[in-house]
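Per-record layout

source: Sphaerisporangium rubeum
name: chitinase
length: 425
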Amino acid sequence: MRRPFLHLLTAAVLAAGLGAVAVPAQASAGPSDGGDRFKRVAYFIQWGIYGRNYHVRDMDVSGAAKKLTHVNYAFGNVGAEGTCVSFDAWADWQRPVPAEQSVDGVADAPGQALNGNLNQLKKLKAKYPKLKVLISLGGWTGSKNFSDAVLTAEARGRLAASCVDLWLKGNLPGLPAGAGAGVFDGIDLDWEWPGSDGDVGNVIRPEDKRNFTLFVTELRRQMRAFDAKAQLTAFLPAAEAKIDAGFEVRQVFGQLDFATVQGYDLHGTWESRTGHNGNLFTDRRDPNPVRYSVDATVKAYLTRGAPAKKIVVGVPAYGQGWTGVGPVAHGLYQAAAGPAPGTWAAGNEDYKVLAGKPGRRYHDVLTGTQWLYDGNEFWSYDDPATLVAKAAYIRLHGLGGSMMWSIDGDDGKASLTSALYSVLR
């Protein structure tokens, strides 16, 4: 019986903070990708360079970059014409980066071809040669056109060719041919969601499920033709209804190097009652009709044929928060007046802010959770101790690793990234 043992381990690592975790020898496997058994993935958001003032250089300065195996650059877009396009060319390759924001301390020179985040990612890779950088396509607000773009074999071939040409070959509009080559080592698909609701206005069809598999197969074929080492990954949902509506799990995993599965937004401020953002285990006290957890999501993929070693678990560097919450059960599963104020969006706040927020913090070792309650506001978020517990779970189950959304939410000491690294290496 592994689950009771895992609960005990969760309790131990939560109590020990960032202490070492003893792992059975059979939980380990051979090295991959530069000797790292586990993937340690983090998303870098394209728009972070603006209001958040978070730059590629900050991944280096904080110490995060040397503890990651992959950086997913979010996001590229699928345009209305059914081809890969940039969301923000200024941020991607046009913006001249000053010396103080540059990875190597050297400003972009006037007239140089490649500027912006892509040139900085190239510099980061030069400093950390084992680091892989993938372009993520889609996201919550960028998945509207996926269904149309993969509807026919001709459309799938055209989309795949455009993605390879733009992001892997580096043929960026307005620049010399190949100016962006060498930035990206692969493609990450973030279609949210094939066959089921995502953002308002998304095109959804029952055929999406089959067409996603066919597109992944075609994209893999074209990527291999260009570079046999190019990696293909995808971000997949937690809800079983969405899994079954949109994904032929066994076939899709057969084409992917690995997939990152949703381990956050399990509850959030679209609901009128507080709950856990990313609980490790299912809570029997959860009053919701569907009880989500990281453990339940992992099992859902395993039972549908996903190989354990290709499942990478998503973890949040942010919290979900409610205001107007009563004191029963320290605010957990209680009615709320609405989302709590947040720096960038109501009901949402970065770990680096929440770590210093006043209030009492509660850990539940049975569910692998932590929350903050101050008598009015309730915030569900992961701290380093809960991430150590999740990392131990990943390791003990022989899973592929961890993925963080998103790296700008971590603090200046890379506390969350370091917590995962302490176990998953």
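summary: Residues 35-319+384-421 form a domain with the TIM Barrel fold (CATH 3.20.20.80). The radius of gyration is 21 Å.
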